[in-house]
What we know:
- The chain is mainly alpha-helical.
- The protein has helices spanning about 1-15, 20-25, 30-35, 45-60, 65-85, 90-115, 115-140, 150-185, 190, 210-220, 225-255, 260-275, 275-290, 300-310.
- Helix 5 runs antiparallel to helix 6.
Amino acid sequence: MVRAAALAGAFFLAGGAIPLIGGILMMLAPAPILVYAVGRPSPNLRATIAVLLATAFVAILWGPIGGLAYFVSFGLATAIACYMLERRLSFEMITAVGAGVMVGASVVSALVLMGGPDAFIKTVHDELVQGMARGQDFYKLLGMQQAIAPDTQASVISLTMRLLPAFALLVAAASMLLNLRVFWRWAGPQRLAYGLFGDLSKWSAPEWMIWLLLAAGFGLFIPVAPIRDIALNGFICIGAVYFCQGLAIIGFYFQSLAVPSIVRGIIYFVVFAQPVVAALVGVAGVFDMWIDFRRLKPPSPEANNLGDFF
C-alpha cells in the first residue's frame, strides 16, 4: 500500500519537476493504486487509504496546496475508477465520470481558494502569458530569434482561454483512458471478471450522441458569446469522441488487411500531426453511423427487400 501510494505521489510530483516527460508521468498517477487495489479484497477501502497516503506524501513534499491539488484531481479520479471497475461499468462511463469529476472538483477548489471566478480567470491568464514567455525563451535557446507579435500573442491567449474547458476535459479523459489501459495490460484480465475494452477496432459511439453534436453545431451560430463558447467547447469534446471512432475504423482495416506495424505507425503519426487529416478521420467517425464502413450492423429487412426487387 505504501509503495503504491508513494509511486502515485511521485508520478504526480513529476509533472512539476520534469519537463515534457513529467506531464506523461503525472497522467499515470492513478495507475499504481488501481493495480494495487482493484480485484483484491476490500478494493474500495484499499484505494481510499492509498489515495489518502499519496495525498499526505504530496503535501509533505509540495505543501498543503499541492496535497489538495492531488486529492481533488487524480486522487478522486483514482477512487472513482476503482469503485466503477468493481461495479463492472464500461470504460466509456468510467472515463466520462472520472474526467468530469477531476475537472469539476479542481475548478471548484480553485474558485474557493482564489476567492471567486475573476481571480481564477486572472490567474489562468497570467499563467498562459508566462508560459508563452518561457516558450519564446526556449526557442531563442534553439536559435529561433523570431518573436511572436503582441497582437498575435493576445489572440492566442484569448482563444486558449475560450477553449480551456474543452482542453481540460480532453486531457482528463485521455488520462483516465491511459490509466485504464495500463491497468488492463498489467493486471486487468486476471483481476476483472469482465472484458473492460473488448475489440476496440469495432468500437462505436452511442447513436444518441449525434444529437448532441448537432445541437452544439447549431449553438455556434447563436449570437450570445457565453452560449457560443459553451457550444464550441461541447462541439470539440463530442468531435473528439467521433475522432476516436474514426481511429477505430482505421484500426479495423489495419487488422483486416494485416498492415505492417511500421506502416500503421506512420499513418497514425500523420493523423495526429495533420489537422486536416484528423478532421477527415473525425468526419468518417460521424458518418459511420449511416455508411457503416466496417459492415458491423446486420442488414435491414428493407434493404433485403429492395435487393430482391432489383
